[in-house]
Amino acid sequence: MRNWTSDWKEFLRDHPSLDVNPGLTYPPVPRVPAASLAADEAFWQQVRNLYPEPEELINLNSGAVSSSPRTVEKAFLAYYQLVNQLPSYYLFKFMEQGRELIREGLAGLVNCSKDEVAFLRNTTEALNNVIFGIPLKAGDEVVACRQDYSKAVASWKQRELREGIKVNWVSLEGPEETDEQIVSKYLSAFTHRTKVLHLTHVINWNGQVLPVAQIIREAKKRGVDVLLDGAHSLGLLETDMAALGCDYFVAALH
Ligand SMILES: Cc1ncc(COP(=O)(O)O)c(C=O)c1O
Asked: Fewer beta carbons within 10 angstroms: which end of the chain, N or C?
């Protein structure tokens, strides 16, 4: 007999298949230099055990199209099947309650208030909401990087063509550049007309981690609004909104 309880926690207790197996969580990442961690076979075996194993192929793309860990796969399928039984009831009655718990969890993860967290369908949609949502007039300038996410680059170019704003493009040639060189490239792109800085925490083309805290500090000194793309950093690098001080942060949960 189905239990039509309206309490989320009670509901999870009655539906153990929706509980993500606590035995399948990521092992804590040891605080050791990257080279030692790279050689720690036992650690990587634990990580590998979390993923569905392909029969004959090895996945070398853990960026744009990485597979989800088995916990995520399991939860995704279980919730899909649940909602599909009675969408109006499960989707609106139960998923709504779960969503607020996720909002609180995410706010805790990135150190911001839960009222500052919004769910969209993906990072691209979040980027475009911000890019097309910031009021700018002809002559205003934006600093962005040629190696930012290509869809965001296209959106800024669209605003240039439609509205006469100007984008000053930073170009990062390769991962050998030092943090100082990168910061100075951004600094030289700022002018007194700069209103927005579009910044990517981890560049998807080569995995380079940018010194975002330093660059954001410089932007804020100049009164520039900062949009930080954390598609490849959330969950991998510490992300503290209060410490970073950016105005908009977008990231993916997949
Ligand atoms: C740096 C960066 N930003 C944004 C995105 C878009 O992410 P999503 O697939 O969540 O829209 C990607 C996707 O690869 C990316 O590499």
From this structure: N
